[in-house]
Design a protein that fits this description.
membrane; five-stranded mixed β-sheet; elongated; 291 residues; 34% strand; alpha+beta; 17 strands; six-stranded mixed β-sheet; immunoglobulin domain; Ig_sub
Length: 291
């Protein structure tokens, strides 16, 4: 009888303690995985950033006020473009992904003010995507120790322009970046793209790559050069598109053509006016004759 009562007490205590243990477990689990996150901006909605190929872009990030005891030399920052790590920095130690080598940084001197923004230089079309920043609170690279800070949506667009030149002039094509690899051309009356230039090609009589700047010059333009020029990167992604018009006629000749067109358009109008006048005169003569 006594053992039966003891068994009932044990069962009752288990029923009472089970919800309590479950509550404590969830509290510990959430605290362990969200350490320090209450003091950081949520950054749940990505900040939209738009940039052009070849320019410099800043992806915003700020942890100011979240880790007051943390000095810049001890601050561990991680930037990802899920699921890949793009950049990581702990004090003077830095790591960059191969495709971003030499193009990304988080200035150490700005970390003291809580600015962990990522600077991407010479931005490329392939850099388009979502980026997320984290502070690693214990200095160990593991998901349980990372605190999410900010999400950024980066959109990189190519350059588009129109140019008009006279025969004999030069066309200077901006390549914009050292990652530009080739230039292709589609003439005005064709649907076929022709390879015009590739990085490493030697200069020719009509094609010249500038020795210092990212520019390609097409010399002594002809009417057959009219069309579309595309600058492509190593992945055949468009860096820029230029629509070229080669003006065969001078401006004075175009004005003369326009005047001739106006005169030609006015001729039918004059004929119609003369016929109308004659009709009115005939009508008047008929009325006088009747009287």
């Amino acid at each position: 009888m006594k053992s039966h009562l003891n068994s009932q007490k044990v069962n009752t205590m288990e029923k009472v303690l089970m919800p309590l243990w479950l509550f404590l477990y969830l509290q510990c689990f959430l605290t362990g995985n969200l350490v320090g996150s209450f003091a950081l901006p949520s950054g749940a909605h990505p900040v939209p950033i738009i940039s052009m190929v070849g320019s410099q872009v800043v992806l915003p990030c700020s942890w100011k006020g979240s880790q007051k005891e943390m000095t810049p030399s001890a601050c561990h920052i991680q930037w990802m473009s899920p699921p890949d790590t793009v950049f990581e920095q702990l004090g003077e130690d830095k790591w960059q992904a191969a495709e971003f080598e030499g193009r990304v940084e988080v200035p150490l001197e700005k970390l003291s003010s809580g600015d962990c923004s990522l600077i991407i230089k010479d931005v490329q079309i392939g850099d388009t995507g979502r980026y997320e920043s984290f502070v690693v609170v214990d200095g160990v690279r593991s998901k349980s120790s990372r605190v999410f800070v900010q999400s950024v949506k980066l959109s990189v667009t190519d350059h588009k322009s129109q140019q008009s030149h006279k025969p004999g002039e030069d066309l200077v094509l901006e390549l914009y970046t050292s990652h530009s690899f080739a230039v292709v051309f589609q003439s005005r009356n064709s649907s076929v793209w022709e390879s015009l230039w590739k990085r490493g090609d030697k200069n020719t009589e009509r094609l010249e790559k500038h020795p210092q700047f990212e520019q390609l010059t097409i010399k002594n333009l002809r009417s057959s050069d009219e069309g579309i020029y595309k600058v492509l990167d190593e992945n055949d992604l468009s860096v820029s598109t230029v629509q070229l018009y080669v003006e065969e006629n001078s401006s004075s000749f175009r004005i003369h053509q326009g005047h001739e067109k106006i005169t030609a358009d006015a001729a039918p109008t004059s004929s119609c006016s003369a016929l109308l006048l004659m009709s009115v005169l005939l009508s008047c003569l008929q009325v006088l004759h009747l009287h």
